[in-house]
Amino acid sequence: MAPGLRSELHCVLICCIVTVNSLTLTYPFYNKFTLFIDDKPLLDHNIGDPVVAVGRSQINYTEDQGNFIISEDVYEKIELSTCDIDESGMPDLFKATCYSVDYFPEVSVDFAVEEKADSELFRKTAIVNITVVGRDRLWFRLASNSTEKIYGAGEQFTYLNLKGHEFPMWIREQGVGRNLSSPLTEIVETGSPGAGGDYHTTYYPAPIFLSTWNYVILGKQERYSILNFTSSTRKEIYVHDKQLMLNVGTATNLMELVGAINREMSVIPPTLPEWIYNGAIVAVQGGTQNMLDKLQQCLDNGVNVSAIWIQDWAGKIETPFGYRVFWNWRWNEELYPGLDSVIFDLAQQGIQVAAYINPHLNVEGDLFVEADNLGYLLKNDKGETYRQDFGGFLAGTLDFSNPLAKQWYAELIKKNIIGFGFKGFMADFGEYTPVDAVATNSPDPYQFHNLLPVLWASTVRLALEQTDTLSSVLPWARSGFTGAQSFHSMMWAGDQNVDWSMSDGLPSSIVAALSLGLSGFGLSHSDIGGYTTLNGILTRSEELLLRWAEYSVFTPLMRTHEGNKPELNHQIYSTNETLKSFARLSAIYTSLTPYHKEVVSQVATFGIPAMSPLFLHHAEDIDSFDIQYQYLYGSDLLVAPVLHPSKTNQEVYLPPGRWMHLWDNDQKVFEGPVSVNVDATMGKTPVFFRDNSKWISLFHDIRNRFNL
User: Is the pTM of this model over 0.85?
Assistant: First the structure.
């Protein structure tokens, strides 16, 4: 043992325990060991339940408009039940070689757990390196038990606690319905296999998860993998690779752990653009006159409007899914005459204009021709420009692995969006890259599929940095993977259905924000009212629209969407009554400006997600861990969105502390933990605040001004 390193050796019967720093190894007999980090079980190996397996499989990816059907036949799986331990590197390094006597030395796995120097963010850190010899499929298992809870895995929409389920790490469309047992998903699947999605399909998977044992596992894998939490004794990571690296970080409690995760992975500005707090971002389409008419209608009814969002600024086309934007990212002067002057004039009134862009170019546009001639688009296996079906039209995808292509697209954003005067834009898509696409500087298409949204995010960030507009222009993005957190300023939850369904409607947008906040990114929001609309099946009601808006008041960004078929949906401007209700909500959002700003500052400074599950602030309260449809906005506001139609009251769980109901004129104090039944009539989504909050005068003022 190296001089100066503290070691303690305890021998009890046949069990030997070596304690060095935070790494602890127990081996009661040959070929069985448990490795702890910071007194938490990390690895637990025995002959009957080994820590590692390897094998081979045949896999097929079928892609259709961003929906992937992944079918895999695992035709060989070898459990490596024998592990030879090397303790020579202790106290800092644990090493083992695992194999099956029937396949050795052809097949084996070497892995090492190395504790690193103390981190500024985590209590303890370690790196796990696994290398496979002889096979290209790896199952690596971490210890677990039946009471452990697991969270993260990127943006998940159905389950906050991941225990009991498995989650493929593959970016794709989330699907319509996302529940294979629901009639809606069955209908969609019948017409287009894969398009219905399932509980795990997501725009933003991330191989990162945290445990209630107060440690986080950050996987560095970029190829297809599966996080499998179905076992009561194992957390399994399955990868299509010959190597795997995991970063491990521990903390004293979950709040410290999540704060460290978010500060480690995210680079969020301490402030968002000031203009977003002027009210709601209101979505309209259809040209300059319609835009101005709808804006005036909103203003006449008292709506606080921070920006008008015109996603069809570049033109539109008609497809079977509805009207879609023409993906040729320059001002369409025919549809929006005088838009440059309108943007300037509205800015003088304190109202901004926002746009839309994605990493694809419609083959009918001149920008596609230019990018194609420059060689800046992904190719197929024949060396031709990849023309991909996006649902009624073909488009090419920017090859962001090529630095020249990346800068060309950044210049396009700088000139046609930022330079034109837009103060915000939706940075959409990133999930559709097929596995037979060829990139200039990424020879592995299976890796590049998950990397494209990260490169897309970095391109957007590059344009903002080169124009020095990080503090004045706000993009919001949909897709991501590990690494995208370093570039985004704001996420949104994507294309929820315009309904109340738990798997793909309003409730799913709450789980999405909470899971993403536990995965390294703390600022997100959703389309008010949802997006996906289907003739005769899915259309938006006024009640859904306003309930969604009620809870969006207590999120970092308040933004509407008309949906893919606006004419079928109730809009905020459909009636003056709806506008008046929405006006009240936009005024509440604006009144919360100082609180919003503190919430954003806490995300940037301390890594506390803007919207966080109750247990993050109340880890001592066991019941809080089972709540996934309530959240804390910042530290002091507890929000319990109404999840079902025709509700007039709602049961709300309050964790430990003293709480006051925002809409209660009697100012009664509730002592948690307790469940209470409160008024939840329209306009009164249940919201509670701490009775010792420094913002209590603001909350009282909001109740006095806006209570119904």
Answer: yes
Q: How far is Cα 182 from Cα 238, in angstroms, rounded to an integer? A: 29
**First and final CA of the chain: distance in angstroms?**
72
Residue 318 dihedral angles phi and psi, to the nearest 5°:
-100, 130
For the beta carbon of residue 434, count every other beta carbon within 10 angstroms.
Answer: 18
Alpha-carbon separation of residue 323 from 315, 317, 319 (angstroms):
10, 6, 6
State the maximum Cα–Cα separation within the chain, in Å, rounded to a whole number: 86
Sheet holding 93-99, edge to edge: 82-86, 93-99, 108-115, 124-133, 243-250, 215-219, 205-211, 150-154
Nearest by Cα to 239 from 155, 170, 158, 159:
170
Active site residues: 428, 431, 495
| CB-CB neighbours of 83 under 10 Å | 23
Q: Which residues of 151-165 are buried (b: 16+ CB within 10 A; e: fewer)?
A: bbbbbbbbbbbbbeb
3-class SS letters over 628-649: CCCEEECCCEEECCCCCCCCCE
User: Does residue 673 have a cis bond before it (omega within 30 degrees)?
Assistant: yes
Give the integer Cα–Cα distance in Å for 588 and 698.
11
Tokens 């919360």 belong to residue = 592
CA dist 521 and 524 (Å) reads 8
d(CA 670, CA 23): 44
* 654, 676 Cβ separation under 8 angstroms: yes
Nearest alpha-carbon partner for 113 in 3, 251, 20, 196 = 20
Question: Per DSSP, what are the bridge partners of residue 398?
Answer: 377
Residues 473-522 pLDDT 10s: 999 999 999 999 999 989 999 999 999 999 999 999 999 999 999 999 99
Which positions ≥6 away from 55 have C-beta within 8 Å? Answer: 74, 75, 76, 77, 78, 135, 137, 139
Q: pLDDT tens-digit profile of 108-130?
A: 999 999 988 777 789 889 999 99
Tokens, residue 382: 């024949």
Tally of CB atoms within 10 A around 366: 11
Residue position matching structure tokens 């969105």? 641
Given 3-state DSSP classes, what are the helix, strand and coil percentages for the chain, each rounded to the nearest 5? Answer: 25, 30, 45
| Phi, psi of 374, rounded to the nearest 5 degrees | -80, -10
Residue type, 500: W
